[in-house]
Write a structure and sequence with these properties.
It is a single chain. The chain is mainly α. The protein is 61% helix and 4% strand. A two-stranded antiparallel sheet has the order 1-2. Helix 2 packs antiparallel against helix 7 and helix 2 runs parallel beside helix 8 (152-177). The model has no long low-confidence stretch (mean pLDDT 96).
Amino acid sequence: MSTNIQDLQYPIGKFEKPLEYSEEMIQDWIRDMKALPFLMDACIENLDTYQLQTPYRDGGWTVAQLIHHVADSHMNAYIRFKLALTEDNPTIKPYSQKEWAEMIDSKTVPVNISVTLIHTLHTRLIAIMENMQATDWLKTYFHPEYNATVPLWEVLALYAWHGKHHAQHIFNLKERMNW
């Protein structure tokens, strides 16, 4: 098990934006999104309060903050999907992930609340995705922080990676700590 900072930060590698997509890739990413709530269940299974308050790496967020972050981030993805599907290239509202992770709810609310939220949120998001037309994946939103227009197929690719990325942080920590 590597303790290299790059490996600790990006245990499945950095997100690499695909240059194109296919129907098969869309279906693979949707499967990843369907699996994420159960992956989150497995991440925290049998962890106690001390373990949940342990950072996944030096200077990193705690396990609890990671779980709450995934819920926060995927809530934003859900809203961004709906905006892109109902408006013409809407400008989305960026948020400070770091500041959100430092808020009191991310430090004190039991993680099962956010895991439940991820389950219910993904049920709704997947219902939307599974009923999108091929042309819907080309719909976009504008991200002012990156000055970029982002198509929904790319958003799906990012969030499919995102969930696995943070789950692997926790699995790697559990392995390093022999939990």
